[in-house]
C-alpha cells in the first residue's frame, strides 16, 4: 500500500470517528430523559393530547350527518306515527327522491374532479321538452324521441367538457352561461309553451311501470347509482378521476389524461340529466312545463355535500350522495306532513346545504 492510500485510509478512519462522536452528542441532546414526571410519557416522550373542542368537531364531521338523518326519522315517526313510519310512505319517499338521486350521483362524478356544473337543470328540461315535441308534433315513436333527446344532452355535455377541460374555461362560469344557452334551445323547440298529453304509446311505461310494486323510476335510479359506485371504486378510470380531483398537476405529470377524464365527467352528468327529463315527462304522461328542471339544482348539490360530510372525511362519494338524497327526502316529506308552508321547507333545505358544506370542510381539516 503506497503513502497516498495510507493517508486516504487514515483520513476515512478519522472522519468516521468524528461522525460517530457528533451523532452520539446529538442523540444525547435530542433524546429526552427516561422519566415519568409531569408532562412526560412512561417511554420518555412528551404526551400529546387533543383539545376537547377539536375532538368534538371531528366527531361532528364524522357522524353528524348520520345522527341527524336518524334523528329526523325518529322525530317525524313520533310526530306522525300513523302516516310517516309506513311502507306506503317509504315507497313515496323513494319515488319522489329517485329523479334527484340520478342527477345527484351524476353531479358527484363531476365534483370529485373539483368541477362544477350549473347547467344540468336546463338539460333536464331540454331532454323532456325535445322528447315531448318530437312525439306530439312530429309523430316520432317514443324510442326515437328518447334517443334523440339523450343524444342532444350528451352533445351539450361534450361541449361543456371541451370548453372547460380543453380550453381552460371556468366550470362555474361556463356551465352557468351554457345553462342559458340550453334554455334558449329548449324554448326554440317547444315555443316556450306548456304541453299536455303528448306522449306516444309506451312512453308513460318508462317511469310508470312497476316491478314488485315499485315504480321503474326507483329501479332506474338504483341501477345508475350502483353502476357509478362500482365505476368509481373498482375501475381504473374511476380511480383516475379521484386522482385528478386530489392533485391535478401530479396526475397530469404521472401520465393521466386529465382533460379527457374531466370531459367524461360532464358527459355523465349531462346524460343523467337527460334521463331525469325523460322520466319526469314520462311520469306526467307527456306533459311538459318550460324550464322545469331548475328546481333540481339545490337538492343535487345539497345531497352531494351532505354525502361528502357523512363519509370519507369530506370526499365526494356515491354512497354518501344517496344517503344525502334520502335525508332531504325525509326532511321534505316530514315537514309536509307537519303542514308547514313551502317557504319553510325551502329554508330548511338551504340551511341543510350550508350546514353540509361547513361539516364537509371540518371533515377535510380533521
Compact description:
By secondary structure, the chain is mainly α. The protein is built from 14 helices and 2 strands, in the order H-H-H-H-H-H-H-E-E-H-H-H-H-H-H-H. It has helices at 3-30, 52-79, 87-112, 120-138, 142-166, 171-190, 205-208, 216-234, 236-246, 248-253, 258-283, 297-310, 318-337, 342-365, and strands at residues 210-211, 214-215.
Descriptive report:
The chain is mostly helical and 366 residues long. It folds into 2 domains: 1-49, no CATH class; 62-365, ABC transporter involved in vitamin B12 uptake, BtuC (Orthogonal Bundle). It contains 14 helices and 2 strands, in the order H-H-H-H-H-H-H-E-E-H-H-H-H-H-H-H. The chain has helices at residues 3-30, 52-79, 87-112, 120-138, 142-166, 171-190, 205-208, 216-234, 236-246, 248-253, 258-283, 297-310, 318-337, 342-365; strands spanning 210-211, 214-215. The protein has a two-stranded antiparallel sheet. Helix 2 (52-79) crosses helix 13 (318-337) and helix 4 (120-138) crosses helix 11 (258-283). The longest helix has 28 residues, at 3-30. The radius of gyration is 29 Å and the shape is globular.
Key descriptive features of the protein:
mainly alpha; 2 domains; 74% helix; single chain; 366 residues; ABC transporter involved in vitamin B12 uptake, BtuC; disordered N terminus; 14 helices; two-stranded antiparallel ribbon
